[in-house]
Amino acid sequence: MVKAFKINVENRKIEEITISSFTDISKEIGNGCGLITAPIIFDNEDTIYVDDEGMYNDYGGGFMMEDWAYPLVGNGVLLGSNEEGDSLDVKTTKEDLEKMIKWVSQEMIQKWIDSVL
Fold first, then answer.
1. What total number of domains does the chain contain?
2. Potential cystine with 64: which of 27, 53, 68, 106 (Cβ 3.0-4.6 Å)?
3. Closest Cα partner for 50 from 60, 37, 62, 40?
4. 5 - beta bridge partners?
5. Strands, DSSP E only, in the chain?
6. Could you list the residue range(s) of the whole structural domain that residue 52 is in?
7. What is the distance between the terminal CA atoms of the chain, rounded to a whole angstrom?
8. SS3 for 61?
9. Residue 36: what pLDDT?
């Protein structure tokens, strides 16, 4: 088991979780997530995973980080990794992640979706 953080958009909280297998990532993202993507890899190799089809599912909001051009839809999971792709304990602290996250409402995401589809 490895330590990770769930970016919970409905509660607008960062929650410490444990991941024991790759399928746990989809379960933690929730909302019927069947296809995950990793749009962001931090310099320390921590990786954010989200539902690749999040904008097509029901969601409670999303999140962005400083200088991002678009929101990530639905919950996310931040998990540590290495160059070989092995899952490791997350290196980023909860406090640092909380400072990076900008919560985005469902309405703001819908405006973004409407503008790109």
1. 1
2. 68
3. 37
4. 16, 78
5. 2-8, 13-19, 36-41, 47-51, 62-65, 72-73, 76-81, 87-88, 101-104
6. 2-116
7. 39
8. coil
9. 95
pLDDT in tens, 8-18: 999 999 999 99
Q: Which two three-digit tokens encode residue 84?
A: 């070989």
The two tokens of residue 21 are 């297998």
**What confidence tens digit (pLDDT) does each residue in 49-104 have?**
999 998 887 778 899 988 888 889 999 999 999 888 889 999 999 999 999 999 99
How far apart are the C-alpha atoms of 17 and 48, rounded to whole Å?
14
Residue with tokens 């890899």: 41
Give the pair of three-digit tokens for residue 59: 């969601």
CA 44 – CA 69 distance, rounded (Å) = 22
Greatest C-alpha distance within the chain: 40
Burial of 2 (0-12, 13-18, 19+ CB in 10 A): middle
Assessment of whether the complete model's pTM goes beyond 0.90: yes
Specify burial of residue 17 (Cβ count, 10 A radius: 0-12, 13-18, 19+): buried
